Amino acid sequence: MAEALLLRTLRLNCLTNAYADLWSELYDDSWAQDSWAADWPGLPPLGEAGPAWGWSTPLRTERARRAALVELDALVALMLDIDAEELIALYRSRFPQMLTYESAMWFDADGRKIAENFNAFGHGQTKQHFEQLMAHLDPEVNGPVPDGYTAPFYKADREAEYRQAHAVFSERLRRSGWQSPAAPDADGAS
Question: What span, in angstroms and rounded, lies between the C-alpha atoms of 147 and 157?
Fold first, then answer.
């Protein structure tokens, strides 16, 4: 799982060519086979970045960057032996403001964020964009797509995304033969 953690971390942080040497030094050929754990329709393949840093190496859209952060949370939770429901309980109890912001947050087909709260606005978003989105999503109004955005829209749902990513990473770990440090050994002792 360390490789999955490193890939997502570097794709989030290696934003400029100043990181080219670091990227090349740490690049692992196995990353080409890595894929997103949660279902993120419309995102480019996670493992598509090659051994040489390029402009497309870092995750640049708001949705792709959020996807990597969600999956990093799930990976670290597994490494700390925190199950999915405990991770969600931590999210609810320790990050109530983020929960509020994400309750009215969508992403367009190009990965642009659009949110109700001005503290969570996506890049270049205005209040009118959110109002246009609500009119667009309302079946009775069926308004046009907000100016500068591309349908379809995907609703942020961190709890469902956590559950899915946690389940996929748990299965990957199980197939690799990894056993949780807290799991009982063959004799039943932990």
Answer: 24
Q: Which residues pair with 106 in a beta bridge?
A: 114, 155
155: helix, coil or strand? strand
* Prediction pTM value: 0.89
What is the torsional sign of CA 108, 57, 28, 33? Answer: positive
pLDDT in tens, 17-38: 999 999 999 999 999 999 999 8
Alpha carbon distance, N-terminus to C-terminus of the chain: 22
Domain boundaries defined on the chain? 1-176
The type of residue at 121 is F
Evaluate whether 22 touches 62 at the Cβ level (below 8 Å). no
Let me know if 93 is exposed, middle or buried by CB neighbors in 10 A (0-12, 13-18, 19+). exposed
Residues of the chain with pLDDT under 50: 186, 190
Give, for 114, the enclosing helix (H) or strand (E).
Answer: strand 113-115
